Amino acid sequence: MLSFATNLSSDIEAFVIFVTEEYNFKDKQNVLSSITVQKINSFLRLLKKKRKDEEVSSFDISEKQKCFIIKVKNKYKSFFPQESGGDLFSYIKKFKNIKKVYFYLDSLDFDKTKSVIFFSQFIFGFNLKNYTFDKYKTSSKEKGNKEINFKIITSNKSTIEKEYRYYDAIKKGIFLTRDLVSEPPNILNPKAYVQEIKKLSKFGLNIKIYNEKEMKRLGLNALVGVGQGSVNGSYLATIEWNGKKKSNQKPLAFVGKGVCFDTGGISLKPARFMEEMKYDMAGSAVVVGLLKSFALRKAKINAIGVVGLVENMPGGNAQRPSDIVKSFSGKTIEVLNTDAEGRLVLADALSFAEKKYKPKFIVDLATLTGAIIISLGEEYAGLFSNNDELSKNIYKAGENVNEKVWRLPLHKNYDKLIDSRIADVQNINYVGGAGSITAAQFLQRFILNRTPWAHLDIAGMSFSKKAANLNPGGATGFGVMLLNYLVKEYYE
Q1: Average pLDDT, the chain
Q2: Which residues are known catalytic residues?
Q3: DSSP 3-state assignment of 345?
C-alpha cells in the first residue's frame, strides 16, 4: 500500500528529489524551505561543474537529514524509471541509519500523464530491488535487505495509486515466482508445490490437479516416467483465468517445466553445482506467478497455465537410458539420457494444453539446456518459435521491459539429429552440437495442430549469483514482466 504525505517532515531522515539532465528542479508545492533550496542548488552547481555522470547522488542537508538526487535524462529508455528505482534502493541501503525516506515526485516538471507513468514504474523498481528471501535465517542480524519505508509527496495521489495497482500486481507475481524458485527442494517437492498452487484459487483462478493415476489414464506417460524414480509423486496442474467470461476468445496458454529437483536420474549429474538444480522448476514458477498477476490486475483475457511437476531421482524404479515411452500425443520417445527430462515433461504438457484448450498461442518456459547459457550467457533467453508474429511480439516485449530474448533457428534439417531408429523420436542429440536447438526441435514435434508456439529457454536467466538492476541476487522472476507486457500490449 502506498503511503503519502503533504509536506516534508523536519525530523525525516532523508528525502529524494528528481532533477533534469541540466540539474534543474521545481518546488511547485513549496515543500522545501528556502534554506534547503539554497543548499540543493549549491550542490547541483557543484555536480554540474564536475560534470559527474552518476544518476544518483547525495549530500547532507544537516547532521540528521540527507538529500538524494536522482538525475533523469531528457531521453530515456522505457525501462529506465524501474531501473532508476532499483538503483536508488541499492544506494540508500549503504546508509545503515536510514529507514524512512520521502520521495518528492513533483520536483520534475512532467505533465500529469508522464509523471504518473514515470513514478509508478520508479516505485515498482524500488520495490523489486527490496525483495529478500531470508525465511530460513534464524538470527535477525543475518536477515537480508533491511526494509526501507517511504512516503510520497505529490499532487497526483489518486492517479498514482490507481496506476500503481497495476504494477503492484506484477510485483506480487514476480515475488511469488522468486519465492518458489528460492525454496529448498526438501520443502518444495511436487506435492507441496501443488498446495501452493491451490492457494491461488482465492484470487479467482480455477485450479485443477491431475495425480499420477489420472495422468496415466490420460496417457501422460512421458511426464510420469520422469518422476517414477522418486518417492514423491508427480502432478500436472492447470490454472485458468477467465477475464472475458462471456467471450468466445481462445485462451492464451502458458506451459512451464516444473522439475522440483533434477539429479539427472540414472544419467546422474556431476556433484559440483548439483545444488543449483532446485531451480529446474523456474519455468513453472514463471507461469504460476504470471497467472497470479493476471488475476490481481483483472486482466481482460482468458488464459491458461499448465505446469508439469516432477522430481527426477535415481531410485530403484527410475527410468533407464534406452527406455521407450508413449507420450500423450501418441508419439513414442526413446529416452537415451534421463537428464534430458525437461523436454519429456513439456512434450506431454504442450500436447495436453493444445488438445484440451485449443489456445490462440502457446508459450512454454523452461530451464531446458546448459547450451543456451554457453550461447547467450545471462543476458538473453533463447527464443524458438514456429510463428514469426508471435516471435516478433515477444522480442518487442522483451526490449520494452529489458527482459531480453534472442531468436534461434528451427529447421527440418535438425530433425535427423533426434530421429530414433526404433521409436518416433529420441530425447537427445548424441551427434553433438546445437543442443538448445535440437531440444526445441524436439518440443516442436509435440505441437500437433500448427498452433502458434514459442519456447523460451531461460536456463541462464532464472537465477543469478550476482545482483542485477531489479533483483538483489538469486531468483530473478525473469519472464513474468515479459509475458505480462506481451499480453497487455498485443492480446488484451
Answers
A1: 94
A2: 269, 343
A3: helix
Taking residues 302-320, what's their average pLDDT? Answer: 98
The residues near 249 (Cβ < 8 Å, ≥ 6 apart) are 301, 302, 360
Virtual CA dihedral for 157, 162, 164, 167, nearest 10 degrees?
-170
- Amino acid symbol at 14: A
Distance CA 333, CA 347 (A): 10
> Under a CB-based contact definition with an 8 Å cutoff, are residues 74 and 96 in contact?
no
> What would the grid cell of residue 127 be?
520495490
Domains and CATH numbers, the chain: 14-155 (3.40.220.10), 172-490 (3.40.630.10)
Strands 56-60 and 332-335: unpaired
Helices and strands of the chain, counted as H and E runs: 13, 18
Q: What is the pLDDT of residue 413?
A: 96
CB 454 within 8 A of CB 393: no
Res 97 pLDDT > 90? no
Q: Which three cell numbers stand for residue 12?
A: 525525516
Query: Is residue 96 scored above 90 in pLDDT?
Result: no
Q: How many residues does the structure list for the chain?
A: 492
